[in-house]
Amino acid sequence: MVALSVLLDVFLPVLPSGVLVITAATAAAAGTGAAPGHVPHVVPDILALTFCAAAASVLGDFAAYRLAWRGGARLDRAIARSRRLSSAQERLGEALSRGGGALVVLARFAPAGRSIVSLGAGAAHRRVREFLPWSALAGLSWAVYSVALGYLGAQWLGATWLATAVSVLALFGAGAGAGLLMRRRPA
User: 95 near 103, Cβ under 8 Å?
Assistant: First the structure.
């Protein structure tokens, strides 16, 4: 369920994949016998969840990238109709050609940023080697961050809804910060 949500999140940014990953991490922390202040020595559920979320993120990004790559004239017309999408695609193309893969990583944390970057990189016909390694780094860093929020929230506050809510607020805070950084124009 987590993998499917994260995979489809690139196409439907309204899916709560981050919330689901945090909730699953909180539940996994509860399932490992974690109590506040007690860190178990072996945490296979947390590692499996992290790998699952990261792999699904990269696969979703690559699927969107390839669909946009093959989208052809129809996708180009749709992007051209929107001044914001045209501007975003142009800025993304420039950033990726300058080696600005950090934008791909940052966009993974911003609301709908993952979709814009994956589709934009494909539509701009950026090479796979310019996009995929950054997408993998973005997926892994996002998965580690999200799972850590859920797990550490359960460690500090117990495996409760409060722990999940605090962790989700931290995820939204990171998303808001990433969104603000992405909107800034480079000097």
Answer: yes
The string of pLDDT tens digits covering residues 111-136 is 777 888 888 888 778 888 888 999 99
Residue 19, CB-side half-sphere exposure with 13 Å CA sphere: 9
Query: DSSP secondary structure string, 116-145?
Result: HHHHHHHHTT--HHHHHHHHHHHHHHHHHH
61, 135 Cβ separation under 8 angstroms: yes
* Distance from C-alpha of 57 to C-alpha of 9, rounded to nearest angstrom: 8
Sequence-distant (6+) residues with CB within 8 A of 166 are 153, 157
Alpha helices in 32-160 (DSSP H): 44-70, 72-81, 83-97, 102-109, 113-123, 128-157
Q: What's the CA gap between 28 and 142, in Å, rounded?
A: 18
Rounded-to-10 torsion of CA 165, 166, 172, 173: 160
User: For 54-95, what is each residue's pLDDT tens digit?
Assistant: 999 999 999 999 988 887 677 777 777 878 777 766 766 666
